[in-house]
Design goal:
The complex is a heterodimer.
Chain A: H1 2-23, E1 26-33, H2 40-60, E2 67-74, H3 79-91, E3 97-100, H4 104-117, E4 120-123, E5 140-142, H5 147-160, E6 166-170, H6 175-190, E7 196-201, H7 211-220, E8 224-227, H8 232-243, H9 246-249, E9 251-254, H10 261-267, E10 276-278, H11 289-302, H12 308-327, H13 333-340, E11 344-345, E12 356-358, E13 365-366, E14 369-376, E15 385-393, H14 402-411
Parallel strand pairs in A: 1-2, 1-3, 3-4, 4-5, 6-7, 6-8, 8-9, 9-10
Antiparallel strand pairs in A: 10-14, 11-12, 12-13, 14-15
Helix pairs in contact in A: 2-12, 3-4, 5-6, 8-10, 12-13
Chain B: H1 3-34, H2 41-59, H3 62-83, H4 94-117, E1 133-136, E2 139-142, H5 143-165, H6 167-177, H7 179-184, H8 189-211, H9 221-236, H10 241-261, H11 266-280
Antiparallel strand pairs in B: 1-2
Helix pairs in contact in B: 1-5, 1-8, 1-9, 1-10, 2-3, 2-4, 2-8, 2-9, 3-8, 5-6, 9-10, 9-11, 10-11
Classes of the chains: A alpha/beta, B mainly alpha.
């Protein structure tokens, strides 16, 4: 009899869990990342970071046993294609959130889909300030810094840096490159820094050969060269500029994406020392348990250290999970929007004493920016040179800047 | 603006031009001889970069790595021609099939390198003897750029010699004119086509291997170089080897000096030159002669 009761109890117990599992709501998230071509690395890294974040979220649990299911489709870095995927996500897959996107031009297209369909879009990588400024719409949130935050911190660094007056800029000839230069000049003017522009150079995105730009920059004799490249373009420019001895003739300053880990890894010991750079996430800063754990988990999962894109994707999933916890479900979009506004998130890139938060008016994550100088460090192979001697800039002084938003609205009318 | 700077800018433009020529010459050769427009030519450049990365690390020797990249890209080209392209020659839809088939190889090779070597950027160091620069008067030139310039001219002269002074050159030129007649004369035309395709893709591999120490080795890089190569061969005259050289030099120098005088428009200048040539001389500066000069 006792044995029979035991069996019955076990049967009912397992039935309870099966029923729970069956009833648990699955919340779909439609992610768009480049999974091929040059941007493929960022898509792959984001995918790995999403898995890490999902493991953590599900381990901690969500209300009513909700499970997050992230679908990833290659957006091919094409706005029109990404729009069709986003629409299909909404109409056929019934996703509750749109997610990801590396290219700003893709994000600017997808944010329109989000606005028109009232589906929350959590941007994790793209940096065009427009999305949380002049192109703001209430269903868009960004879980990584915009270029204005990087450039404002860059201007603060330049204000402290002595011994320069003449400045030149080189950046890719599209919105990302152009906006960085506009923002840096705006920030320098705002801080009252006096400077003389001796050259502006606009190679095309993915330019393979910078030789003629390099000789022209050397001839212009700036004290400091500001660069606005990202990814492989940074690698190619540094390799070619080093061959001409450019880094011995001027300071090199690259505050948004120059210090990305994937650049350090690609250049290995070819990366010159003394370059001033930053990134939206550093594998070796801050020295907190959160950052170390994230970096090690990523390494364990992929066999390589994460590019900056990974942390943005990780932050995006945590943002969605926290909003669902706060609201108690994923059905009430307006309540989720309210929950996300002002939300605090402890992230790997937060130093001790600071917690990232979503600015309620612009939906932009507010984070510190750390700018460092390249120096020998072989703790994160294959990189042999990493950023060090970081200077950290107060997040609240970087964003929001409503005067800049007004300036941007007029400039891009 | 002093003279040494202008010379330095000129040499910079020439160095850009020579790498451009190395990529475009293979594309031009295939088109000139086989009338095959190989959209995937940039992918052989990409393959050359990755093979060089692999074998330089394996043998710990830059030059052996480059040779392996040339052979590997050439062999892959031979296989592609023998197994796939050969089956569409002479069909009524050959042109559209060429585009579809070679374009599909862009996707296949791009995904293949990502699968084998991963998505992260790779890097190759220059050989130790070519790391630093030479100071010639007031002009500073990286030794590696000088090496590429010299190698480019060696390739030009070698090809000129082969095409104009050897029996093999005569066969190649005849293949460009009339494959049927050549076949009737007992020449194994399919074999010639396969070998030409192999040589052309090997040149793509060579360009990729030599460019790797200066550029980023990453999936997608092949598609980017093919656009500039297309401009070069359209400018020089489709299928004309020497036209490709001149086209590359024009593009290299126009961009080099455009950066000085109209930096805002520098990235558009090569397209502008191509548009002007297409309007004024649509057949290109050196159109392929019917008498068979390749």
């Amino acid at each position: 009899m006792k044995k029979q009761f035991k069996k019955l109890f076990l049967f009912l117990f397992s039935l309870f869990f099966v029923a729970q599992g069956y009833a648990a709501e699955v919340v779909k998230i439609g992610a768009l990342y480049p999974m091929s071509g040059r941007g493929g690395l960022y898509g792959k890294d984001s995918e790995a970071a999403i898995k890490i974040a999902l493991d953590e979220v599900h381990k901690k649990g969500l209300p009513k046993g909700i499970k997050l299911d992230v679908i990833i489709i290659d957006d091919q870095s094409k706005p029109d294609y990404a729009v069709s995927v986003a629409k299909r996500y909404i109409t056929e897959d019934n996703v509750k959130f749109l997610f990801g996107v590396v290219s700003s031009s893709v994000a600017l297209a997808v944010t329109e889909v989000s606005k028109n369909n009232k589906v929350i879009f959590v941007g994790t990588d793209h940096a065009a300030t427009d999305l949380t400024a002049n192109k703001f719409q209430p269903y868009y949130f960004r879980a990584s810094n915009n270029t204005f935050q990087s450039m404002m911190a860059g201007a603060m660094y330049l204000k402290e840096l002595k011994g320069w007056k003449k400045i030149a800029y080189i950046g890719p000839d599209y919105a990302y490159g152009r906006d960085q230069w506009m923002e840096l000049k705006y920030a320098l003017d705002k801080l009252g820094v006096k400077y003389e522009v001796v050259g502006e150079y606009w190679p095309k995105l993915y330019e393979p050969d910078y030789t003629s730009y390099i000789t022209a920059i050397i001839n212009a004799k700036p004290d400091i060269l500001v660069a606005g490249f990202w990814g492989g373009d940074t690698v190619a420019f540094i390799k070619q500029a080093k061959a001409y001895g450019l880094f011995n003739k001027m300071k090199y300053f690259h505050p948004d994406a120059g210090g990305n880990y994937e650049v350090m890894a690609a250049l290995g010991k070819e990366m010159p020392e003394g370059l001033i750079m930053s990134a939206r996430h550093h594998v070796n800063w801050p020295d907190t348990s959160e950052n170390k754990t994230f970096v090690q988990k990523f390494y364990k999962a992929t066999g390589r250290y994460p590019s900056y894109a990974a942390e943005g994707a990780y932050a995006g999933i945590l943002l969605i999970a926290e909003a669902i916890r706060k609201v108690g479900n994923a059905d009430n979009t307006e309540a989720l929007v309210k929950a996300m506004e002002g939300m605090k998130l402890r992230l790997p890139e937060d130093p001790k004493g600071f917690t990232s938060y979503i600015d309620p008016k612009t939906h932009q994550i507010v984070q510190v920016q750390a700018i460092g100088v390249t120096k020998k460090n072989n703790k994160f192979p294959p990189a042999e040179v990493m950023l060090g001697d970081f200077k950290v800039y107060d997040a609240n002084k970087l964003w929001p800047d409503f005067k800049y938003i007004e300036y941007l609205k007029k400039a891009k009318k | 603006m002093d003279v040494s700077f202008l010379i330095s800018q000129f040499v910079g433009g020439l160095s850009t031009a020579m790498l451009l020529f190395l990529v475009a010459s293979g594309l031009s050769l295939i088109f000139g001889v086989g009338k095959v427009f190989n959209f995937a030519h940039g992918s052989f450049y990409l393959l050359g970069s990755y093979l060089a990365f692999q074998f330089i690390n394996f043998f710990n020797n830059f030059w052996i790595g480059v040779i392996c990249a040339i052979l590997g890209a050439g062999m892959f080209g031979v296989v592609m021609e023998f197994l796939f392209l050969r089956r569409i020659y002479g069909r009524s839809e050959e042109v559209s099939f060429q585009i579809l088939l070679t374009y599909s190889f862009i996707l296949i090779i791009d995904d293949m390198v990502k699968y084998i070597w991963g998505p992260e950027y790779k890097t190759i160091e220059k050989p130790a003897s070519l790391i630093d620069q030479l100071q010639l008067g007031g002009v500073l030139i990286p030794k590696y750029s000088i090496f590429i310039l010299i190698l480019g001219f060696v390739i030009v002269v070698t090809f000129w010699f082969i095409l104009n002074r050897t029996e093999m050159g005569k066969v190649i030129k005849a293949t460009a004119i009339d494959r049927d007649m050549l076949s009737l004369l007992g020449v194994n035309v399919p074999l010639v086509m396969t070998l030409i395709f192999g040589v052309a893709t090997a040149m793509g591999g060579l360009a990729g291997a030599l460019a790797a120490p200066l550029r980023t080795v990453t999936p997608g890089a092949g598609i980017e170089v093919i656009i500039d190569s297309l401009i070069v061969i359209v400018l020089g005259g489709l299928g004309n080897f020497w036209g490709a050289l001149l086209g590359a030099i024009i593009i290299g120098e126009v961009v080099a000096f455009g950066i000085l005088w109209v930096p805002q428009w520098a990235s558009l200048l090569n397209f502008l030159v191509m548009v002007l040539v297409l309007i004024l001389k649509p057949e290109g500066l050196f159109p392929q002669k019917k008498s068979g000069r390749v």
